[in-house]
Amino acid sequence: METAGACFERCLGQAPAEVLMLKQLEATASALSHKAVDGRVFFIWVLLCFCQFMGSNPNSNLGVGPLDWFASLTTRQITMRPTHDRRSFVQATVVLATLVAASTGLSHVAAQTPKWPSKPIKIVVAFPPGGLTDAYARNYGDFLSGRLGVPVVIENKPGAGAIIGIDAVAKSPADGYTFGMSTSGTYWQNRILYSKLPYNLDKDLTPVTVFPSGPLVVGIHDKIPAKNMAEFVAWAKKNPTSMGTYAPGSYPHMVADQTNRQQGTQIQSVHYRGEAPMWLDVASGQLQIAVGSYQAFNAVATRGVRAIGVTGSYRSPKLPDVPTLTEQGNTEKLVTLEGGLPLVAPAGTPEAVLKRMADEAVAWSNTDKAAKLRETFAIPNKPKNLADTRKDWEAEVPVWIKLAVDLGIKLD
């Protein structure tokens, strides 16, 4: 089909500036017709382009400039030159017809852009039910379902140090219907801890928000005669000691490795698929120490497990009498950091979807249910919006990666 520009050029027998401008407008309109641009924005673009053409055309039969002509649309005070220049009339008609046709095509494309969400959303949790990650996902998922009007399905995929669950998300379509939740260590440090992963953490996934985990509890079997971390280290130097972790390469795993390197202990790390079974083994005496969330620890706090410290830079609101490891004299950077539970999406997920999901997490954090969850898990902080999450991600991830590199842990 002959384009308006080609037809105009053929009719006039030459390629004046008007034809070149028209061809540029046609190319722009064609490009925009493939994008989901708001129809109102595009309509204004059409009018402005037409005004620009008429104002820049010395043969135009409009006696006003482009801005004045546009403003006059609302007052109907367009002044016409007393000229019957057929050429300028044809020019104006062809330009306007081309732009209107392009806007019509764009409206058709935009009208067929699928609405999000139009089907259930899935959040893959890389740990089994019973821990903080699962609790966050289910609570947030219920809120999200009510806000978006579609079911939100929580799918637990534990195993292989969270690699199974993360891989499922990384290989999912970037269409805004699959997200993942795991611990920060399994996202940030696995790239160092494993020589080969089935996905690229930098290229295949993108952050949405991070749900804070708060201070983690350092708990020991109640029969061990230690009241703080220093006393436990002294005991561990003389007795076989195993520390429970909720995943290979997780924060507790790094704490055990760092303690061995700096204190000369030989603490063995025992990896579990989540916190619940780990704390049960501390309560039974099969493990001597573990590090995990307050809520999971609290389930066995009266069944043979005692807290001797907490990680991070502040005390747990639920354990105000238990000092932080830093207060106890530990100066290592690792024990001062607070990890979290990132919500991620496959790379390429639409920006508007990422922003909406993060905004809904912020909105959820201000509900009574979210406040109750934070109180249960002793977490004072809240998730952030997409922009702030990206800033934190860029600042904090390199610190965690360097710690993993310095410790020299390899899990394969």
Structural description of this entry:
By secondary structure, the chain is α/β, with parallel strands linked by helices. Helix 3 runs antiparallel to helix 5 (86-111), helix 6 (132-148) packs across helix 14 (351-365) and helix 6 (132-148) runs antiparallel to helix 15. It is globular, with a radius of gyration of 31 Å. The protein has three domains: 4-111, no CATH class; 121-212 and 340-407, Bordetella uptake gene, domain 1 (D-Maltodextrin-Binding Protein, domain 2, 3-Layer(aba) Sandwich); 217-336, 3-Layer(aba) Sandwich (D-Maltodextrin-Binding Protein, domain 2), CATH 3.40.190. Helix 6 (132-148) links the parallel strand 1 and strand 2. It is built from 16 helices and ten strands. Residues 1-5, 7-15, 28-45, 58-84 and 106-112 have low confidence and may be disordered.
SSE arrangement:
Elements lengths: L3 H9 L4 H16 L6 H18 L9 H6 L14 H26 L9 E5 L6 H17 L3 E5 L6 H8 L7 E4 L2 H5 L1 H4 L11 E8 L4 E5 L7 H8 L5 E4 L5 H13 L4 E4 L3 H10 L4 E4 L1 H5 L6 E6 L29 E7 L4 H15 L2 H10 L8 H22 L5
Parallel strand pairs: 1-2, 1-3, 6-7, 6-8
Antiparallel strand pairs: 3-10, 4-10, 5-8, 5-9
Helix pairs in contact: 1-2, 1-5, 2-5, 3-5, 6-14, 6-15
